[in-house]
Design a protein that fits this description.
Blueprint lengths: L12 E3 L8 H9 L4 E3 L3 E2 H5 L3 H5 L9 E6 L3 H14 L3 E6 L4 H4 L11 H14 L4 E5 L10 H10 L4 E4 L15 H9 L4 E4 L5 H11 L3 E4 L8 H7 L6 H16 L1 H16 L5 H9 L4 H9 L4
Parallel strand pairs: 1-2, 1-9, 2-4, 3-4, 4-5, 5-6, 6-7, 7-8, 8-9
Helix pairs in contact: 1-11, 4-6, 6-7, 9-10, 11-12, 11-14, 12-13
The structure holds flavin mononucleotide.
Length: about 300
């Protein structure tokens, strides 16, 4: 398994950046299960430049390693500023988001919109690369649409500019999250690249990890939605002792309480509890309770009602 620049990872599994989801508690839990690297949610470079408290809160905590801080924006100088800021804060790797298709981001000319503006994307990479000593990665899709597919060209230029690894989520921006990711496209990227390639998209089971590594030659596998409510796919793949289901759910919630406070944690945890409950035969009857969760006692009560 190759290093990402100067950073050696203990294995080839990466927790994906998931805005509004891959917060510190989820990253902690994923590390407990053994992932080799975690990404922050995407962070607005403008927000960092303007000293926006919310942008800073989204980031990572001291001594959280290894951590890749992902930034988005479209101004090369502002992106370089934000990248340096996170390097100073202790980020091991910086990643530039060229893949986010959501209108709020793309309308500003950031994220996946930069896939349509290779010149600006390369200017950003060049500016950020010069500002950093830590490794730099980019995360991209296949292009804006099938008619504007340009991931191979952007990757070639990114590699020339000194990017240390490329993450590909092989969908077009216009697809958002519909259809299937097309990993055959990743094979082509792998064939033209000398730097490590990270594959992202539709990994749901531990067998998917094994298959995608061998069939498509990815150096690393990034997992997003498949890990929500199912961190066990990591322990299955790494063949580490499985962690107890109820204990894991409670631990995840406790991590959230420590980070967000109990009331906010209870609200935020609702998006995870429905996924965790799928492991149990009486999931349907417990869903209502999961949606009303207001604190640790409620969660413990719910866990007591679970049929294993
Ligand atoms: C709720 C959600 C938030 C996401 N946020 C980000 C993000 O902040 N940055 C990014 O590069 N990709 C983001 N993605 C894309 C994921 O990182 C990943 O590439 C994509 O979901 C495909 O992988 P998966 O099928 O394993 O989820 C997000 C996806 C989802 C579903």
């Amino acid at each position: 398994m190759p290093n990402i620049g100067s950073v050696a990872l203990k294995n080839n599994i990466i927790l994906a950046p998931l805005a509004g989801v891959s917060d510190y508690p989820l990253r902690q839990l994923s590390r407990d299960f053994g992932v080799g690297l975690t990404y922050t949610e995407m962070i607005s470079a403008e927000g960092i430049y303007r000293n926006n408290h919310k942008s800073k809160h989204f980031t990572f905590v001291k001594n959280e390693h290894p951590i890749c801080a992902q930034i988005f924006g479209n101004n090369p100088d502002v992106m370089a500023y934000a990248a340096s800021y996170f390097e100073d804060q202790g980020a091991d790797i910086i990643d530039i988001n060229f893949g986010c298709p959501v209108p709020k981001v793309a309308k500003q000319g950031s994220g996946a919109a930069l896939a349509r503006n290779t010149k600006q994307a390369v200017a950003i990479i060049s500016s950020v690369r010069k500002a950093l000593s830590v490794p730099l990665t980019i995360k991209m899709r296949l292009g804006w649409s099938a008619a504007e597919e340009n991931y191979l060209e952007l990757s070639r230029q990114a590699e020339k500019e000194g990017v240390n690894a490329i993450c590909l989520h092989p969908r077009y921006a216009t697809q958002m999250y519909t259809g299937q990711s097309n990993w055959d496209k990743l094979l082509l990227l792998k064939q033209q690249s000398k730097i490590p390639i990270i594959g992202s998209g539709d990994i749901k089971k531990s067998i998917d990890i094994t298959n995608h590594l061998s069939q498509y030659g990815a150096d690393y596998i990034m997992i997003g939605r498949g890990l929500l409510g199912n961190p066990w796919l990591i322990s299955e793949y790494l063949q580490t002792p499985p962690k107890h289901i109820k204990d894991t759910i409670e631990l995840h919630f406790k991590y959230m309480v420590d980070f967000h406070g109990e009331a906010k944690a209870a609200k935020l945890f609702r998006k995870f509890i429905s996924k965790y409950l799928k492991h149990f035969s009486n999931a349907k009857e417990l869903k209502g309770l999961g949606n009303k969760l207001s604190g640790l006692l409620d969660l413990q009560n719910l866990l007591g009602l679970i049929n294993v």
